[in-house]
Amino acid sequence: MTDLFDQPDDATPLTVEEQRDLIPSHISNRRELNEAEQENIMRGQDWALRRRRPDLLNEKFVTDLHKLMFGDVWRWAGSFRHSERNIGIRFYEIPTALRQLLDEVKAWIEYQSDPADEIAVRFHHRLVAIHPFPIGNGRHARLMADLLVMQLGGKRFSWGRANLRDADEMRTQYLAALKTADNHDYGPLLAFARS
Fold it and tell me: Which pLDDT score is estimated for 60?
């Protein structure tokens, strides 16, 4: 048995149909898949960071960015999921919930409801909670938050890279901060984003 589609216990598993949409035929284990995704993510990130003041808060940008981050690896990249997950709203509610979130964020910005960091982190949290894509939601939402905070005049978030020694520790702290934010306490997620 290959470990290609093995996920950590707290990660979102792919359906068999979604697994079939892996594009590179040479990938045979999880390490190779992670490397291919990371290379693709870097290309998507480079594209997004090169754009001058993009209109981030629309469905097209959200889906285009996901496609650019994962489209060399997965055929369904940039498309909303079509099945239920261990996290997120029901798949058929995604388009409406995403539009509502994007409109709310525009209002937060217009009325300066919170500082830029908090607006971006709250946006990130809600985007992860919607969980619009089969996988890559956390990575995508972190980049979306980075782009938003930079557009609002802030600095890009470090998302735990400054203080943590390993990826497992970083993931544990990130997930704990997300759970705390589920109860409308964004302090730990804000601190993690800037750590």
Answer: 97
